[in-house]
Write a structure and sequence with these properties.
Structural class: mainly alpha
Distance between the termini: 33 Å
Largest sheet: none
Radius of gyration: 16 Å
Length: about 120
């Protein structure tokens, strides 16, 4: 039964990724993959928050945790897309853009995950 929650969360996460990533990319008006970057950073923040929240929130069911973490966040974040987009920038000879994108993705996503954990801690107090 828990697999149904993961599947539902994945579907919702994938649709959210598609909509938000496309919206941000279109609005930015650039070939730099800001849509994927935005999804990865917000996904890292959300997963950081949820991980910390569920570690201290005894009332959360395994189904809710699976729905939101493995399901939604797993379907929402786009590391594989990030990897391909970085490779494409390198193949186009855009070494600086590719390097900046890879560095920004890792640093900002890590910072966002820390922010999510900190928010969850603050809200638990």
């Amino acid at each position: 039964m828990i697999l149904l929650y993961v599947a539902l969360g994945s579907a919702l996460g994938g649709v959210s990724r598609f909509l938000l990533g496309g919206f941000v990319q279109t609005r930015a008006g650039t070939t730099f993959p800001v849509g994927t970057l935005a999804v990865n950073v917000t996904g890292a923040f959300l997963l950081g928050y949820l991980t910390r929240h569920f570690s201290v929130e005894a009332g959360s069911s395994p189904e809710t945790r699976a729905l939101l973490t493995a399901g939604f966040c797993g379907g929402y974040t786009t590391f594989s897309t990030f990897s391909v987009e970085t490779l494409q920038l390198f193949e186009q000879g855009s070494w600086a853009k590719g390097g900046a994108y890879a560095a920004a993705s890792v640093v900002l996503s890590l910072a966002a995950a820390v922010g999510g954990v900190m928010l969850a801690r603050a809200m638990a107090e």
